[in-house]
Each structure stands twice: as C-alpha cells, then as structure tokens.
Write a structure and sequence with these properties.
The structure is a single chain. The chain is α/β, with parallel strands linked by helices. It is built from 11 helices and 10 strands. The chain has 2 domains: 145 residues, Nucleotidyltransferase, domain 5 (2-Layer Sandwich), CATH 3.30.420.40; 170 residues, ATPase, nucleotide binding domain (Nucleotidyltransferase, domain 5), CATH 3.30.420.40. The strands form 2 sheets. The chain has a 5-stranded mixed β-sheet, with helices on both faces. β2 and β3 form a beta hairpin. The protein binds adenosine monophosphate and magnesium ion. Magnesium ion binds next to loops.
C-alpha cells in the first residue's frame, strides 16, 4: 500500500439495505473492514414480491441512526477520529438516498469532517480492490437487482461502458422468474437452489440479442423476452420447477458469458495490459454463473475475481472504500449536493 491510510464511515441507503461501515485503508487495497452493519428490509418487501420505495425510505429513516451508532461502536471509533464521511448519493430510490445523504451531511457538519458523495455503482465497481487489492485496469461485470453492465475500469474517474441491459436487470429477471414459478422473494438464491435438481435442456428458452432474430454482436443485454417465454410456458403447461429454473439459469449463463466475451475484446483494445475480470452485485453470489465465468476466463487468459457474497450485495463497506479512494485522489463534496435517482458511471 502507498499513501496514508484513511478511516472512513460509509452509509448506504439506495435500495432495501440500511447499512453503515467503517473501513481503513489506502489504494490499491486491500483495506481493513472495521465494521460492516447491514440491515436488510427483505421481510418488509417480501409480501409485494419487490422493493416498495415508500416502505424502504421510511424503514431507512427509522433505523439508520442506530445502524451508524452500531458501526462506530463495533469499529471502536468516534466521529472525531474519522477522516471523512461517505454516503451513497445515487443512483437508486431517491427517497432512501435522501435519508442516507442527509444524515451524512448532518454528521459531516457536526464533526467538521469532509463529506464524500459516492456513486453506488462505483462502490460495487471498486469492491474487488477493498477485498483483493485488484490493480487498475479491470473489466467489470456488474450484475445486481437494479443493474446489468459491462465496464472497463481504468481508475476512479475512468469508466468505459461496453454494454448494459436494454430492459430488465439480471437480478430482476431472477426475481420475476421466481415469482412466475411461485418461489419466494428474493428469487435469485431460490432459482439457483431449484436449478441444482433440474435439467437445463428441459425447456428451450430464448437468448435475446445473443441468438435468434434480434441477435447483435454487442455487449448489451436483454432479459425481458426470456422472462416472457417462461411466463408463456408456465401458462401453457404444467412445468417442473427444477427444470424450468435450470433452463432459465442456463439461458442467463449463455447471455452473460457471450456478452462478457465480446466486452473482453473491447477491453483488450482499450487496455492491452489488463487481464482481470471482476464480478460484482448480488447475482455474483450465483455459483453456476461464477463457474461459467471461470471457464470463460480460463479460455480467454483472464483472472476472475469475485468478492465474497456479503460484499457483493448492497453494503456500506464498499461505499466507505470508494470514499477512501476518492478522498485519496483529492475529492470532497459540498454540503448542498443533491441525491440523484439516475447517475451513470460513464459519460
Ligand atoms: P443487489 O441488487 O446487489 O442487492 O442484489 C440483489 C439481487 O441479487 C436480487 O435480485 C437477487 O435475486 C439477486 N441474487 C442474490 N443471490 C443470487 C443468486 N444466488 N443467484 C442469482 N441471483 C441472486
Ligand atoms: Mg439490495
């Protein structure tokens, strides 16, 4: 590690996790996670089969102060001993982002510490530096409940978008598939579990943009046609849940590996010395997807880095770490910065 280690409090409230964490470290990592408190609101949203924004922002408001207190206590640190306070400023459900960002502003004002407004996607993107000290540049496959993107990452302000979803995010496709099959929310882990006992060739499901009438040699993703095909299948015949889960997951794997292989070519042109693929976001917890990406990396001469599941799903350690990296590069934000529902990483 180079430079002086920074100790940062991170706050994450952009979706349905209320989280606070204290991280110490300096670029390129790995960093030290002194505390990592995540309060998941999954139960509150489960009856609706998805995240309800109003329920989420109220829940953040009710528990965030306690979550922050717990993060500071577990790290055995006071506000006065921090170097800065980082919070997700977007993209996400704006009501929730507002709760976290406003709290961070109040703490920054009261303690006289700098505020660092963090892009949630940058948090996911840089997690492999926190956990593995991965050097720039790397290719990032971000697969979560709200996002599905392939990006070349050359530094904290160098993100090159190679592909993104033109409809649903991949985690959303897992959740909707689970709902169609009558499995509980969140659906990703349920579908993965059911797929283990199923035959992936039982049902012929489409691979939109990869094969068929709308095939495109790009790194963009599409999942809505896959979901629709599954719904029609369920409406027309009595399906086996394990077979349908396995067939769906096999289609997702084909889509993800095909698009990642295309992005690898573009990444090599942009960064001839780079050979690391980082996978981040909640869907990175899927072991069948991880194994398929491992085979792709072996064939393409890439090294695969996947942070542990608790740092792949939404958390505040990744926000604190992005704060470490941005503060080390001289960044700080004014207290009147606004939350952003949309905030793309690349321009
Ligand atoms: P995040 O948006 O990063 O908090 O991740 C949550 C999303 O990841 C949800 O859509 C979950 O269904 C999905 N997910 C979590 N675990 C798995 C898994 N094992 N397989 C597929 N998707 C998953
Ligand atoms: Mg989440």
């Amino acid at each position: 590690m180079t430079g002086k280690p920074l100790t940062i409090l991170g706050i994450e409230t952009s979706c349905d996790e209320t989280a606070a964490s204290v991280v110490r470290g300096c670029a390129p990592g790995p960093g030290e996670i002194l505390s990592n408190i995540v309060f998941s609101q999954t139960e509150a949203h489960a009856p609706y089969g998805g995240v309800v924004p109003e329920i989420a922002s109220r829940a953040h408001l009710e528990i965030l102060d306690g979550v922050i207190e717990q993060a500071l206590a577990e790290a055995n640190i006071t506000l006065a001993a921090l170097d800065g306070i980082a919070a997700t400023a977007g993209p996400g459900l704006v009501g929730g982002v507002m709760v976290g960002l406003t709290t961070a502003k109040a703490l920054a004002l009261a303690s006289g510490k700098p505020l660092i407004a963090v892009n949630h996607l940058m948090g996911h993107a840089l997690t492999a530096r926190l956990t593995h000290g991965v050097d720039y540049p790397f290719l990032l496959l971000l697969v979560s409940g709200g996002h599905c993107q392939l990006l070349g990452v050359g530094g904290t302000d160098d993100f090159r978008l190679y592909g993104s979803t033109i409809d649903d995010a991949v985690g959303e496709a897992f959740d909707k598939t689970a709902k169609i099959l009558g499995l509980p929310y969140p659906g990703g882990p349920e579908v993965e579990q059911a797929a283990k006992a199923g035959n992936a060739k039982a049902y012929a499901l489409p691979r939109p943009l990869v094969t068929g009438h709308n095939a495109r040699k790009s790194a963009d993703f599409s999942f809505s046609g896959l979901k629709t095909a599954l719904r029609q299948l369920v409406e027309n015949e009595a399906v086996s849940i394990p077979d349908a889960s396995a067939s769906f997951q096999a289609a997702v794997i084909d889509i993800l590996t095909d698009r990642t292989a295309i992005a690898m070519q573009r990444f090599r042109t942009d960064f001839p010395d780079g050979n690391t693929l980082v996978v981040a976001g909640g869907v990175a917890a899927n072991q069948a997807i991880g194994a398929a990406l491992g085979r792709l990396c072996a064939a393409e001469g890439f090294v695969l880095r996947v942070p542990p599941p608790r740092l792949c799903t939404d958390n505040a350690a990744m926000i604190a770490w992005a704060g470490v990296e941005r503060m080390a590069s001289g960044a700080g934000d004014a207290l009147d910065i606004s939350p952003r529902a949309r905030w793309p990483l690349s321009n």
